[in-house]
Amino acid sequence: MQLGLVGLGRMGFNMRERLRKGGHEVIGYDRNPDVTDAESLADLVGKLDAPRAIWVMVPAGDPTRQTVEELGSLLTQGDLVIDGGNSKYTEDQRNAAMLAEKGIDYLDVGVSGGVWGLENGYGLMVGGTAENVERLLPIFDTLRPEGPREEGFAHAGPIGAGHYAKMVHNGIEYGLMQAYAEGFELLDTAKIVEDVPAVVKAWQRGTVVRSWLLDLLVRALDSDPELDDLRGYVEDSGEGRWTVAEAIDNAVPAPVISAALFARFASRQPDSPAMRAVASLRAQFGGHAVQKAGPTSGSGSTQA
Fold it and tell me: Which of 17, 47, 70, 173 is labelled catalytic?
Protein backbone atom coordinates (compact mmCIF):
# COMPACT_ATOMS: atom_id res chain seq x y z
CA MET A 1 0.00 0.00 0.00
CA GLN A 2 0.99 3.67 -0.12
CA LEU A 3 2.23 5.46 2.99
CA GLY A 4 3.59 8.88 3.83
CA LEU A 5 6.35 8.90 6.45
CA VAL A 6 7.39 12.06 8.32
CA GLY A 7 10.79 11.87 10.04
CA LEU A 8 13.65 9.92 8.46
CA GLY A 9 16.04 9.75 11.39
CA ARG A 10 17.60 6.67 12.93
CA MET A 11 14.34 4.71 13.04
CA GLY A 12 12.24 6.40 10.37
CA PHE A 13 14.87 5.94 7.66
CA ASN A 14 15.15 2.20 8.35
CA MET A 15 11.37 1.84 8.53
CA ARG A 16 11.10 3.36 5.07
CA GLU A 17 13.68 0.90 3.76
CA ARG A 18 11.99 -2.12 5.35
CA LEU A 19 8.60 -1.10 3.98
CA ARG A 20 9.97 -0.52 0.49
CA LYS A 21 11.65 -3.93 0.54
CA GLY A 22 8.23 -5.32 1.47
CA GLY A 23 6.71 -3.88 -1.69
CA HIS A 24 5.03 -0.75 -0.31
CA GLU A 25 5.24 2.71 -1.85
CA VAL A 26 6.66 4.99 0.85
CA ILE A 27 7.06 8.72 0.33
CA GLY A 28 9.08 10.28 3.11
CA TYR A 29 9.56 13.82 4.32
CA ASP A 30 12.47 15.06 6.40
CA ARG A 31 14.19 18.40 6.87
CA ASN A 32 17.40 16.74 5.72
CA PRO A 33 17.48 17.28 1.94
CA ASP A 34 19.75 14.26 1.48
CA VAL A 35 17.07 11.76 2.54
CA THR A 36 13.70 13.42 1.87
CA ASP A 37 11.32 12.56 -0.97
CA ALA A 38 9.23 15.72 -0.56
CA GLU A 39 10.03 19.39 -0.11
CA SER A 40 7.50 20.03 2.66
CA LEU A 41 4.57 18.47 4.49
CA ALA A 42 2.26 20.08 1.96
CA ASP A 43 4.29 18.57 -0.88
CA LEU A 44 4.15 15.17 0.85
CA VAL A 45 0.37 15.36 1.17
CA GLY A 46 0.13 16.35 -2.51
CA LYS A 47 2.10 13.29 -3.57
CA LEU A 48 -0.25 10.86 -1.80
CA ASP A 49 -3.51 9.46 -3.11
CA ALA A 50 -6.64 9.96 -1.02
CA PRO A 51 -7.57 8.51 1.36
CA ARG A 52 -4.06 9.08 2.71
CA ALA A 53 -2.17 7.47 5.55
CA ILE A 54 0.76 9.38 7.08
CA TRP A 55 3.04 7.95 9.77
CA VAL A 56 4.81 10.48 12.02
CA MET A 57 8.24 9.53 13.45
CA VAL A 58 9.56 12.74 15.00
CA PRO A 59 10.65 13.50 18.60
CA ALA A 60 7.89 13.47 21.21
CA GLY A 61 6.44 16.68 22.60
CA ASP A 62 6.28 19.90 20.63
CA PRO A 63 7.76 18.47 17.38
CA THR A 64 5.09 15.77 17.21
CA ARG A 65 2.33 18.12 18.35
CA GLN A 66 3.22 20.74 15.73
CA THR A 67 3.53 18.14 12.99
CA VAL A 68 0.13 16.63 13.74
CA GLU A 69 -1.46 20.08 13.86
CA GLU A 70 0.03 21.02 10.49
CA LEU A 71 -1.12 17.74 8.99
CA GLY A 72 -4.58 18.46 10.36
CA SER A 73 -4.65 21.64 8.28
CA LEU A 74 -3.50 19.81 5.12
CA LEU A 75 -5.36 16.51 5.17
CA THR A 76 -9.01 15.84 4.35
CA GLN A 77 -11.83 13.67 5.61
CA GLY A 78 -11.03 9.97 5.53
CA ASP A 79 -7.27 10.43 5.87
CA LEU A 80 -5.34 8.75 8.70
CA VAL A 81 -2.49 9.99 10.89
CA ILE A 82 -0.30 7.52 12.80
CA ASP A 83 1.95 8.72 15.63
CA GLY A 84 4.75 6.17 15.95
CA GLY A 85 7.02 8.22 18.20
CA ASN A 86 7.40 8.04 21.97
CA SER A 87 4.57 10.44 22.77
CA LYS A 88 2.89 10.42 26.16
CA TYR A 89 -0.43 8.61 25.89
CA THR A 90 -2.38 11.65 27.08
CA GLU A 91 -1.24 13.49 23.94
CA ASP A 92 -3.05 10.92 21.82
CA GLN A 93 -6.51 11.88 23.08
CA ARG A 94 -5.74 15.51 22.30
CA ASN A 95 -4.43 14.75 18.81
CA ALA A 96 -7.26 12.37 17.98
CA ALA A 97 -9.93 14.86 19.11
CA MET A 98 -8.37 17.67 17.09
CA LEU A 99 -8.19 15.54 13.94
CA ALA A 100 -11.67 14.06 14.46
CA GLU A 101 -13.18 17.54 14.09
CA LYS A 102 -12.00 17.42 10.48
CA GLY A 103 -12.95 13.79 9.85
CA ILE A 104 -9.35 12.60 10.03
CA ASP A 105 -8.63 9.30 11.79
CA TYR A 106 -5.78 8.59 14.20
CA LEU A 107 -3.71 5.69 15.51
CA ASP A 108 -0.96 5.67 18.12
CA VAL A 109 1.77 3.06 17.77
CA GLY A 110 4.47 2.20 20.25
CA VAL A 111 7.46 1.04 18.23
CA SER A 112 10.37 -0.97 19.64
CA GLY A 113 13.38 -2.17 17.73
CA GLY A 114 15.76 0.76 17.55
CA VAL A 115 18.45 0.76 14.90
CA TRP A 116 18.13 -3.03 14.51
CA GLY A 117 14.57 -2.88 13.22
CA LEU A 118 15.52 -2.84 9.54
CA GLU A 119 16.95 -6.33 9.85
CA ASN A 120 14.99 -7.80 12.76
CA GLY A 121 11.64 -6.03 12.49
CA TYR A 122 9.84 -3.83 15.01
CA GLY A 123 7.66 -4.75 17.95
CA LEU A 124 4.39 -2.83 17.55
CA MET A 125 1.75 -1.85 20.13
CA VAL A 126 -1.24 -0.06 18.59
CA GLY A 127 -4.03 2.08 19.99
CA GLY A 128 -7.15 2.99 18.01
CA THR A 129 -10.24 1.52 16.41
CA ALA A 130 -10.30 -1.99 14.98
CA GLU A 131 -11.24 -0.53 11.58
CA ASN A 132 -8.17 1.70 11.40
CA VAL A 133 -5.91 -1.08 12.65
CA GLU A 134 -7.23 -3.34 9.91
CA ARG A 135 -6.63 -0.59 7.34
CA LEU A 136 -2.92 -0.39 8.30
CA LEU A 137 -2.43 -4.14 8.80
CA PRO A 138 -0.34 -4.59 5.61
CA ILE A 139 2.08 -1.94 6.92
CA PHE A 140 2.16 -3.46 10.42
CA ASP A 141 2.78 -6.95 9.01
CA THR A 142 5.76 -5.72 7.02
CA LEU A 143 7.28 -3.79 9.92
CA ARG A 144 6.87 -6.47 12.59
CA PRO A 145 9.33 -9.36 13.02
CA GLU A 146 8.82 -12.55 11.06
CA GLY A 147 6.78 -15.24 12.76
CA PRO A 148 3.33 -15.30 14.38
CA ARG A 149 1.71 -11.87 14.32
CA GLU A 150 0.81 -12.01 18.00
CA GLU A 151 4.50 -12.35 18.94
CA GLY A 152 5.43 -8.97 17.48
CA PHE A 153 2.19 -7.03 17.21
CA ALA A 154 -0.70 -6.14 19.52
CA HIS A 155 -3.84 -4.06 19.13
CA ALA A 156 -3.53 -2.87 22.72
CA GLY A 157 -6.84 -1.01 22.96
CA PRO A 158 -8.40 2.38 22.17
CA ILE A 159 -6.59 5.64 21.41
CA GLY A 160 -3.62 6.01 23.76
CA ALA A 161 -3.27 2.32 24.57
CA GLY A 162 -0.39 1.81 22.16
CA HIS A 163 1.75 4.54 23.70
CA TYR A 164 0.75 3.48 27.21
CA ALA A 165 1.96 -0.06 26.46
CA LYS A 166 5.22 1.29 25.02
CA MET A 167 5.68 3.48 28.10
CA VAL A 168 5.46 0.44 30.38
CA HIS A 169 7.70 -1.52 28.00
CA ASN A 170 10.37 1.16 28.32
CA GLY A 171 9.98 1.24 32.09
CA ILE A 172 10.66 -2.50 32.18
CA GLU A 173 13.63 -1.90 29.91
CA TYR A 174 15.05 0.53 32.48
CA GLY A 175 14.87 -2.16 35.18
CA LEU A 176 16.41 -4.88 33.02
CA MET A 177 19.30 -2.70 31.92
CA GLN A 178 19.98 -1.62 35.50
CA ALA A 179 20.04 -5.23 36.70
CA TYR A 180 22.54 -6.23 34.02
CA ALA A 181 24.62 -3.13 34.79
CA GLU A 182 24.76 -3.86 38.52
CA GLY A 183 25.66 -7.47 37.87
CA PHE A 184 28.46 -6.39 35.55
CA GLU A 185 29.84 -3.98 38.14
CA LEU A 186 29.83 -6.63 40.86
CA LEU A 187 31.63 -9.12 38.61
CA ASP A 188 34.10 -6.48 37.52
CA THR A 189 34.83 -5.41 41.10
CA ALA A 190 35.16 -8.87 42.64
CA LYS A 191 38.77 -10.02 42.28
CA ILE A 192 37.77 -13.68 42.17
CA VAL A 193 36.26 -13.36 38.67
CA GLU A 194 39.09 -13.04 36.19
CA ASP A 195 37.20 -12.95 32.87
CA VAL A 196 34.02 -10.95 33.18
CA PRO A 197 33.20 -10.81 29.43
CA ALA A 198 33.44 -14.63 29.26
CA VAL A 199 31.00 -15.01 32.15
CA VAL A 200 28.48 -12.62 30.62
CA LYS A 201 28.80 -14.35 27.24
CA ALA A 202 28.16 -17.72 28.90
CA TRP A 203 24.79 -16.44 30.07
CA GLN A 204 23.53 -16.18 26.49
CA ARG A 205 22.44 -19.80 26.19
CA GLY A 206 20.62 -22.02 28.64
CA THR A 207 20.23 -19.47 31.45
CA VAL A 208 17.11 -17.73 32.67
CA VAL A 209 18.69 -14.27 32.25
CA ARG A 210 19.33 -14.60 28.50
CA SER A 211 17.77 -11.85 26.39
CA TRP A 212 18.39 -9.52 23.47
CA LEU A 213 19.61 -6.88 25.93
CA LEU A 214 22.16 -9.40 27.23
CA ASP A 215 23.26 -10.06 23.64
CA LEU A 216 23.81 -6.33 23.17
CA LEU A 217 25.85 -6.18 26.39
CA VAL A 218 28.03 -9.02 25.11
CA ARG A 219 28.46 -7.16 21.85
CA ALA A 220 29.58 -4.05 23.76
CA LEU A 221 32.03 -6.07 25.88
CA ASP A 222 33.52 -7.67 22.76
CA SER A 223 34.61 -4.24 21.55
CA ASP A 224 35.40 -2.73 24.96
CA PRO A 225 35.95 -5.42 27.67
CA GLU A 226 36.16 -2.91 30.51
CA LEU A 227 33.47 -0.57 29.14
CA ASP A 228 35.82 2.30 29.91
CA ASP A 229 35.50 4.07 26.56
CA LEU A 230 32.27 5.72 27.73
CA ARG A 231 31.30 7.93 30.63
CA GLY A 232 28.75 6.47 33.01
CA TYR A 233 26.27 9.23 32.16
CA VAL A 234 22.77 8.10 31.18
CA GLU A 235 19.90 10.26 29.97
CA ASP A 236 16.25 9.24 30.08
CA SER A 237 13.70 9.77 27.32
CA GLY A 238 10.86 10.55 29.74
CA GLU A 239 9.01 7.26 29.50
CA GLY A 240 10.61 5.90 32.68
CA ARG A 241 9.35 8.96 34.55
CA TRP A 242 5.88 8.54 33.09
CA THR A 243 5.85 4.86 34.07
CA VAL A 244 6.76 5.67 37.67
CA ALA A 245 4.14 8.44 37.77
CA GLU A 246 1.48 6.02 36.49
CA ALA A 247 2.52 3.46 39.10
CA ILE A 248 2.03 6.09 41.80
CA ASP A 249 -1.34 7.20 40.40
CA ASN A 250 -2.55 3.58 40.26
CA ALA A 251 -0.97 2.56 43.61
CA VAL A 252 1.06 -0.14 41.86
CA PRO A 253 4.39 -0.88 43.58
CA ALA A 254 7.23 -0.51 41.06
CA PRO A 255 10.42 -0.43 43.14
CA VAL A 256 12.72 -1.86 40.44
CA ILE A 257 11.67 0.57 37.71
CA SER A 258 11.76 3.48 40.17
CA ALA A 259 15.24 2.56 41.38
CA ALA A 260 16.48 2.23 37.79
CA LEU A 261 15.18 5.69 36.98
CA PHE A 262 16.81 7.22 40.04
CA ALA A 263 20.07 5.46 39.16
CA ARG A 264 20.06 7.35 35.87
CA PHE A 265 19.65 10.60 37.77
CA ALA A 266 22.58 9.64 39.98
CA SER A 267 24.73 8.98 36.91
CA ARG A 268 24.58 12.68 36.07
CA GLN A 269 25.98 13.82 39.40
CA PRO A 270 29.77 13.92 39.51
CA ASP A 271 29.45 14.92 43.16
CA SER A 272 26.09 14.11 44.73
CA PRO A 273 24.73 16.71 47.19
CA ALA A 274 22.68 13.98 48.85
CA MET A 275 25.72 11.79 49.44
CA ARG A 276 27.67 14.77 50.74
CA ALA A 277 24.88 15.17 53.30
CA VAL A 278 25.09 11.47 54.21
CA ALA A 279 28.87 11.75 54.62
CA SER A 280 28.52 14.80 56.86
CA LEU A 281 25.92 13.08 59.05
CA ARG A 282 28.12 10.00 59.47
CA ALA A 283 30.99 12.26 60.48
CA GLN A 284 28.77 14.15 62.94
CA PHE A 285 27.20 11.26 64.82
CA GLY A 286 30.01 8.74 64.65
CA GLY A 287 33.16 10.56 63.73
CA HIS A 288 33.44 8.34 60.66
CA ALA A 289 36.11 8.99 58.03
CA VAL A 290 35.18 11.49 55.33
CA GLN A 291 36.92 12.72 52.19
CA LYS A 292 37.49 16.46 51.89
CA ALA A 293 36.56 18.24 48.67
CA GLY A 294 39.35 19.52 46.51
CA PRO A 295 42.02 18.36 44.05
CA THR A 296 43.65 16.14 46.66
CA SER A 297 41.05 14.43 48.83
CA GLY A 298 42.08 13.65 52.37
CA SER A 299 40.21 11.81 55.07
CA GLY A 300 39.44 12.44 58.68
CA SER A 301 39.95 9.55 61.07
CA THR A 302 38.51 10.61 64.41
CA GLN A 303 36.78 7.64 65.96
CA ALA A 304 33.65 7.86 68.10
Answer: 173
